[in-house]
């Protein structure tokens, strides 16, 4: 696993997931959020060890935490079946499950064994993909849907999970399915960017929050073009960026410009709402 990919994955493990879980506002996730460092720290250490037994064991610790997080989805789904069909809830359920996909790829990659026919390079890139294009994207689309309760918000909250699912299916059945997933995911993420810029950003007077939301929107608009061009090239044979270039541009942009800026902005919005609630 390259240094760049390892740093991006560490950001996902140690920052993006726990901050995102706090933003859900779901009390039943408080315990797993507090325990998350017990799983994430070994997972982060595993990234920097040579492939083999110790790295695999530490990656398995992270996988255990990811599975425990995913196990919160079925009870939430069954507790209120009608609510589970709401777009924002579908996005949240997707966010709960996607780290387990990343963790499965991490265990296989750290053990040095291909999984389902995928080589170690693809597995290494699957780990950040399902932390950011999976967990962070689904979570933010759900938050946007809750705040900008509109047809566009509901479209974003549904298309991001659907696009993520189609990309995953495309791993197994071919590049054209992956291209379809990239198209759907891009449409959803562009909608998230547009709503963030036009609606959520304009409602806030706090300068830092506005800047964070503006950066996340602008970066997302660019990084999804890169994702679309790569998927199109893979499906058609047209010239397209290499995986190394994608990691350095699309990957870094999504991790820092979109995910981190978005979650920091939403955390500031949550803190302000909590403060206003206490002083009301």
TrEMBL record:
The record's Pfam families line, in alphabetical order, gives: YndJ
Keyword Cell membrane (UniProt): no
The name of this protein is YndJ-like protein
Q: Which InterPro entries match?
A: YndJ-like (IPR025450)
Query: Which residues span the membrane?
Result: 6-23, 35-51, 57-78, 90-108, 120-143, 155-173, 179-200, 212-233, 245-266
* Keyword annotations from UniProtKB, A to Z: Membrane, Transmembrane, Transmembrane helix
């Amino acid at each position: 696993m390259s240094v760049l990919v390892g740093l991006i994955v560490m950001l996902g493990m140690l920052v993006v997931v726990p901050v995102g879980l706090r933003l859900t506002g779901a009390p039943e996730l408080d315990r797993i959020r507090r325990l998350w460092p017990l799983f994430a720290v070994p997972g982060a250490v595993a990234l920097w060890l040579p492939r083999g037994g110790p790295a695999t064991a530490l990656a398995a610790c992270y996988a255990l935490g990811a599975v425990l997080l995913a196990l919160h989805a079925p009870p939430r789904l069954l507790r209120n079946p009608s609510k589970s069909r709401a777009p924002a809830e579908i996005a949240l359920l997707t966010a709960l499950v996607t780290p387990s996909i990343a963790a499965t790829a991490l265990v296989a990659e750290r053990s040095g064994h291909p999984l389902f026919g995928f080589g170690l390079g693809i597995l290494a890139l699957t780990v950040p993909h399902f932390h950011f294009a999976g967990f962070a994207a689904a979570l933010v689309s759900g938050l946007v849907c809750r705040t900008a309760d509109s047809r566009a918000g509901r479209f974003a909250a549904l298309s991001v999970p659907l696009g993520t699912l189609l990309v995953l299916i495309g791993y197994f059945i071919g590049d054209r399915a992956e291209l379809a997933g990239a198209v759907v995911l891009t449409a959803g993420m562009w909608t998230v960017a547009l709503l963030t810029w036009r609606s959520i950003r304009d409602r806030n007077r706090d300068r830092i929050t506005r800047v964070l939301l503006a950066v996340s929107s602008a970066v997302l608009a660019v990084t999804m073009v890169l994702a679309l061009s790569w998927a199109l090239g893979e499906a058609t044979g047209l010239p397209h960026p290499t995986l190394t270039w994608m990691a350095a541009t699309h990957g870094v942009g999504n991790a820092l410009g979109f995910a981190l800026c978005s979650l920091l902005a939403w955390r500031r919005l949550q803190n302000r709402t909590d403060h206003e609630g206490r002083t009301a």
